[in-house]
Amino acid sequence: MVNLILSYGATVNQRCSQGWTALHEAVSRDNTEICEILIRAGTTINPANTYCITPLIVAAQRGLMRALCYLIEKGAGVNMQTCEGFTALHEASKNGHREIVALLLTKNADANKPDNSGLLPLHVAAQHGHHEIVSLLVSVTSRAKLRHSWISPLHLAAQYDRHAAAAVLLKTGADVNATLPHSHSIEYADRRTTALYFAVAHGSRRTAEVLVNAGASLNLDPVSPLLMAAHHGCVSTVSLLLERGADMNVRLPSFATTFPALVTLCKNNLPLLKCLLNHGCDALTCFACTYGADAHPPLRGSSIRTAVSHRYDCTLPLNCDERTERVTQFCEWISTPAMCKWVGPIIDLLLEHVGHVQLCSKLSELLDGREEWHAIKRKSLSPRPLQHLCRLSIWTQMGRDRRRSITSLPLPSRLKTYLSPDD
């Protein structure tokens, strides 16, 4: 039929509304027989459609090996770029066509030609998690090009939770502590810089573990990755970072507190608060109040009201540019509208990790506000059981790594159960 139409004078390079020629269509169906007819009739070997996509790029996008080999044999350009700067190698890397990538590399495809956003094929493969293609591209990608790109392939693998691709990059020499250039870091309110922070910020738990195991530093970002993990409420990531030495006493850049700042990120997330307490979070400071049994003055100043109330209602205070001068106490934070409905369960959990404490007038007032919380107040007023005080004392001696100590020590099972933070 193609021969018949051509014999009646059809224009072989005629384009459709999207700029496709008959050669594009033939290639998209992997039909080299029709490609041969069209080429004999004089079709252009590198016709670009409206978006500058050539037939060879179509073949690379769709993993059409036969059509690709045919076009290369006929002289199609392997390094032509689309309007967005993508080459056939970019497209094959994006779509996971490993054999196509391998073939293009043998045909002098340039692995160091960036797209319009500055990303190389290696970036694209890492972003989409094609670790076998990452292995192919690492050795042919210029280290200098990677150093001068605005983001590393490892950052992209971390952002999209491509843990296998991240592992390959690290194994082949990627710097686990490479940082984002300042010109791009400042585009984020939290000034994030490391791949680990990207992984934590995007909930990429598996990749975060790969990075930590490879020696990722927990202290290179202006905002601690631990704060971001707590903000996301990911107990497993918080536990991972704490076990690897993350600072439990890290401060929020924009919200100063007299108690551990991490507690403020446990809104309606008691499992997260329990995780922090089990790792040694200082619960005692939550009951330290400068006003004690005296009446608490109302919060003054719009900045304080915003920081303590509005921020915890809708946004996370991890903006490095905003800071409050006044230090907020636990009783002030928990009495805000966003938190007051969680007062009882939170204080009840905190009491399990302290000895005898004196509730300030504000906390007492909050517990008096709901009948189901009266038992919690009575619990705080009663002498703490000796069994509870002994457990706290032993936990203190064990330090932050108490869970591992309990597991490793040659203790009777009954004693391990007694000491287990989970029980």
From TrEMBL:
<protein>
    <recommendedName>
        <fullName>SOCS box domain-containing protein</fullName>
    </recommendedName>
</protein>
<dbReference type="InterPro" id="IPR036036">
    <property type="entry name" value="SOCS_box-like_dom_sf"/>
</dbReference>
<feature type="domain" description="SOCS box">
    <location>
        <begin position="362"/>
        <end position="423"/>
    </location>
</feature>
<feature type="repeat" description="ANK">
    <location>
        <begin position="18"/>
        <end position="50"/>
    </location>
</feature>
<dbReference type="InterPro" id="IPR002110">
    <property type="entry name" value="Ankyrin_rpt"/>
</dbReference>
<feature type="repeat" description="ANK">
    <location>
        <begin position="221"/>
        <end position="253"/>
    </location>
</feature>
<comment type="pathway">
    <text>Protein modification; protein ubiquitination.</text>
</comment>
<dbReference type="Pfam" id="PF12796">
    <property type="entry name" value="Ank_2"/>
</dbReference>
<dbReference type="InterPro" id="IPR001496">
    <property type="entry name" value="SOCS_box"/>
</dbReference>
<dbReference type="InterPro" id="IPR036770">
    <property type="entry name" value="Ankyrin_rpt-contain_sf"/>
</dbReference>
<feature type="repeat" description="ANK">
    <location>
        <begin position="84"/>
        <end position="116"/>
    </location>
</feature>
<keyword id="KW-0677">Repeat</keyword>
<dbReference type="Pfam" id="PF00023">
    <property type="entry name" value="Ank"/>
</dbReference>
<feature type="repeat" description="ANK">
    <location>
        <begin position="149"/>
        <end position="181"/>
    </location>
</feature>
<feature type="repeat" description="ANK">
    <location>
        <begin position="191"/>
        <end position="223"/>
    </location>
</feature>
<keyword id="KW-0040">ANK repeat</keyword>
<dbReference type="Pfam" id="PF07525">
    <property type="entry name" value="SOCS_box"/>
</dbReference>
<feature type="repeat" description="ANK">
    <location>
        <begin position="117"/>
        <end position="149"/>
    </location>
</feature>
